Amino acid sequence: MAKQNVAEQFVDILTRAGVERLYGVVGDSLNPVVDAVRRHKGIEWVHVRHEETAAFAAGAEAQITGKLAACAGSCGPGNLHLINGLYDAHRSMAPVLALASQIPSSEIGLGFFQETHPDQLFRECSHYSELISSPKQMPRLLQTAIQHAVGQGGVSVVSLPGDIADQPAPEKAAETALVTSRPTVRPGDEEIDRLVRMIDAADKVTLFCGSGTAGAHAEVMEFAEKIKSPVGHALRGKEWIQYDNPFDVGMSGLLGYGAAYEATHECDLLILVGTDFPYNAFLPDDVQIAQIDVRPEHLGRRSKLDLAVWGDARETLRCLIPRVREKHNRRFLDRMLKKHADALEGVVKAYTRKVDKHVPIHPEYVAAVLDDLADDDAVFTVDTGMCNVWAARYISPNGRRRIIGSFSHGSMANALPMAIGAQFTDRRRQVVSMSGDGGFTMLMGDFLTLVQHDLPVKVVLFNNSSLGMVELEMLVAGLPSYGVANKNPDFAAVAEACGAFGARVEKPKDLAGALKAAFKHKGPALVDVVTDPNALSIPPKISADMVTGFALSASKIVLDGGVGRMLQMARSNLRNVPRP
Length: 580
Fold this sequence. Notes:
Blueprint: H1 6-16, E1 21-24, H2 31-39, E2 44-47, H3 51-65, E3 69-73, H4 77-80, H5 83-91, E4 96-102, H6 118-121, E5 128-131, H7 138-152, E6 155-161, H8 162-165, H9 189-201, E7 205-209, H10 217-227, E8 231-233, H11 238-241, E9 248-251, E10 257-258, H12 260-265, E11 269-273, E12 288-293, E13 307-310, H13 313-320, H14 331-348, H15 363-373, E14 379-382, H16 386-394, E15 402-405, H17 415-425, E16 431-436, H18 437-442, H19 447-452, E17 458-463, H20 468-476, H21 491-498, E18 501-505, H22 511-520, E19 525-530, H23 544-559, H24 563-573
Parallel strand pairs: 1-2, 1-3, 3-4, 4-6, 5-6, 7-8, 7-11, 8-9, 11-12, 12-13, 14-15, 14-16, 16-17, 17-19, 18-19
Antiparallel strand pairs: 9-10
Helix pairs in contact: 1-2, 1-7, 3-5, 3-17, 10-13, 15-16, 15-22, 23-24
């Protein structure tokens, strides 16, 4: 048997850790590893057009499977392109191993061509980032990196010079056991007892849930029923907690809707469950707050806590359910449910009624039709910006669907790359990229990746020829929109020129047919929907400062001769403004 080199040993260890593919772009310093992948039956090289796509794809795969995923970039600029996608994976707690190939080891520190120091550059977006400077380091260092990524949930980066990758691997390297899953964490009895006392003493309790409730839906529902609690959620908690939820009061935050804001502010005790909700302005400061989280560094960093409980959501709730006293008074719960229903009727559904003739097409209508036609187990990847709003308000989770986006990092251009990673996990599962025209064009080259690998991803393009969320931010700040317009091509024609299915929709009556045709197509498809640029998201609570900013911006636009546009905007959003 021929002796292994370091690259071959590296690939062997990855496959033992469950990695099935390596996303990246080939390059000289990376060539030994790519060649090892070529010759290994247990792993696939996924050629993408931009390394940022590779990192986003690996992060999405890890979120779908819960297992370690991997990406790679060649030395210097190659691995630097990984950084944005790795930030997203790390902040999403997705276990990803990134290989940052490095210049020849003898030239490090001497200003060599393409020299960078990836072991330093990636430290802020990883739990572990180290350089392999000797073949003898590799097995243990890679094992340590894998255990950091899986055990702590996030990114590990291994920097490997190309010359070392080509050297003989050390003989009799120990094949130690690898961590491939995380344990459950149960809080201490003292914390459980204190939380039980707080719950029993409170008349009105609200639960606010995040992505940490994944796998705990049944426990959340049982607990809410016992204590008669409204259940709100953050955006990352939507897919885990909104479905089959008779206690649902919607979502809070800048993209929120419904009565979640009121439920979190009008209770006696707010319990944050598995959420690192970043917008502390939407959290109350005059009610008792307890927080349950498996990551202790999250406890109390968004709001002042009366009790911090270190444990995962499911185990903690299993401890609480038999110990808390059942509440029988439903008045607070029913009042919040009524507020939520009224909000849904008056706000969330505003654009989906009587809009079959409205041109340009309302984006809410597109999202509503998409929700109706998509498969019950579809994976939706969502671009940052207005697509986040439409997904949050119109895509219905059911326990089988997944909704993935750059919800913590907030990067543009994430939806298409994430769809690539999601589709590789199962080619038979429907994957829909809800892309904005701004995000799509930023990494549009990787639409070719869909064609090259014949991935049946369906791109639904919300094309308003604008950076819509940025425009809204300008309006709220009292600024006229500037630098946000996009001059776009016919994206359907672009898709067809690439060898994929393409359809362009300008009238509502054509939307359902185009989506059905795209879903029926066996390969990659793009539906370019021309949407209303005047349809803007209105937050569930509007402060005086926000109203002032919007009015000031409107006056500036009028002075610049834009009265027609402001009239259209007013008509588009009048029904969506929450009534005081």
